[in-house]
């Protein structure tokens, strides 16, 4: 590739990336139906793995665990990475020693700096788990077309699985709260056919029980206390897809600014104060681990 071609390629990738981010922002406000110097913010260039020891490298995603019936299991899930905010979440959760799962978009992991972010998440298991959020985010947010063309949609999902090197077949449907676990489906009509196809192909579809909404692309809607009330209400009223197992959805880009990264830190810290709460990666959700 000559220098001119290389420059054009980099420009096209950058242009596409920012176009996709803008599109993602425009669709995020409906998920409930489905410049600060705060020290919480880290440099997005800081892509090292702090806890890369032998035990981390030998852990195998999907290994079964035992559940304690007196505990409340919480699964923090972050969508749409790699993007601005991904490494803030990485370092913040790592410092708090809290497990989380990152559902990433394949095409956003093409550029070298983005690949480093993807690698950092993948290599941090069992602290963090890399999961599949399709390759093109439903053909660049063409949801009706994507979900009505199940074969092409499955190919898109599988392309992300390969390109991101996702370690286990766990996915989330873009912009839709869909569950597909071993033949058990709960999803909008729009995604049902695709979820059945993915389920038949051995994928586990993960929805959510509580969502931290955003407005204006990056600004969290609920306060920390409101999020805590929603979490406790979901547990108290058995609103989870599976009792005592609560999946929380947020998006990496919500926490790229210091004040909002601080909100995430406070939210997690307050959840940790309840001795009933246990944080896990989504491969340990009932029905996903290999013994279920």
The proportion of residues in beta strands is 15-25%
Spatial gap, N to C terminus: 49 Å
Q: In angstroms, what is the radius of gyration? A: 18 Å
**CATH structural fold name:** TIM Barrel
Give the name of the CATH architecture: Alpha-Beta Barrel
How many domain units? 1
Unreliable spans are 1-15, 32-42, 51-55
CATH structural class:
Alpha Beta
**Major beta sheet, specifics?**
6 strands, parallel
- Count up the helices: 10
Task: Please identify the structural class as seen in this structure.
Answer: alpha/beta
Task: Give the beta-strand count.
Answer: 12
Q: On the 0-100 scale, what is the average pLDDT?
A: 88
Describe the structure concisely for a colleague.
The chain is α/β, with parallel strands linked by helices.
For the structure shown, list the relevant keywords.
292 residues, disordered N terminus, globular, 12 strands, two-stranded parallel sheet, single chain
Descriptive report:
- α3 (86-96) packs parallel to α10 (258-272) and α9 packs parallel to α10.
- The chain has 292 residues and is of the alpha/beta class.
- The chain has helices spanning 3-27, 54-58, 86-96, 112-123, 137-141, 143-148, 150-163, 189-200, 224-236, 258-272, and strands at residues 72-81, 100-104, 128-132, 170-171, 179-181, 184-186, 204-205, 210-211, 214-215, 219-220, 245-251, 277-279.
- The radius of gyration is 18 Å and the shape is globular.
- α4 links the parallel β2 (100-104) and β3 (128-132).
- The chain has a single domain, classed as Glycoside hydrolase/deacetylase (TIM Barrel).
């Amino acid at each position: 590739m000559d220098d001119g071609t290389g420059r054009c390629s980099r420009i096209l990738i950058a242009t596409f990336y920012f176009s996709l981010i803008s599109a993602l922002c425009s669709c995020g406000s409906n998920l409930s139906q489905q410049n600060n110097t705060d020290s919480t913010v880290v440099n997005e260039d800081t892509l090292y793995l702090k806890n890369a020891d032998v035990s981390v490298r030998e852990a195998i995603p999907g290994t079964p665990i035992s559940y304690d019936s007196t505990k409340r299991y919480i699964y923090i899930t972050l969508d749409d990475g790699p993007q601005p905010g991904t490494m803030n979440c990485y370092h913040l959760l790592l410092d708090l020693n809290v497990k989380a799962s990152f559902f990433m978009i394949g095409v956003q992991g093409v550029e070298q700096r983005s690949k480093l972010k993807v690698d950092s998440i993948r290599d941090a298991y069992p602290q963090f788990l890399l999961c599949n959020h399709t390759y093109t985010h439903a053909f660049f947010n063409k949801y009706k077309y994507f979900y009505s063309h199940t074969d092409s949609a499955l190919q898109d999902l599988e392309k992300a699985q390969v390109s991101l090197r996702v370690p286990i077949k766990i996915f989330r449907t873009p912009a839709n709260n869909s569950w597909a676990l071993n033949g058990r489906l709960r999803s909008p009509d729009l995604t049902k056919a695709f979820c059945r196809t993915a389920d038949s192909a051995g994928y586990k579809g993960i929805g959510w029980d509580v969502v931290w909404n955003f407005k204006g692309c990056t600004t969290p809607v609920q306060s920390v206390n409101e999020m805590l009330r929603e979490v406790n209400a979901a547990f108290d009223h058995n609103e989870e897809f599976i009792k005592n197992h609560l999946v929380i959805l947020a998006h990496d880009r919500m926490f790229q600014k210091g004040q909002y990264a601080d909100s995430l830190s406070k939210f997690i810290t307050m959840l940790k104060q309840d001795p009933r709460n246990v944080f896990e990666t989504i491969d340990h959700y009932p029905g996903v681990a290999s013994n279920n």
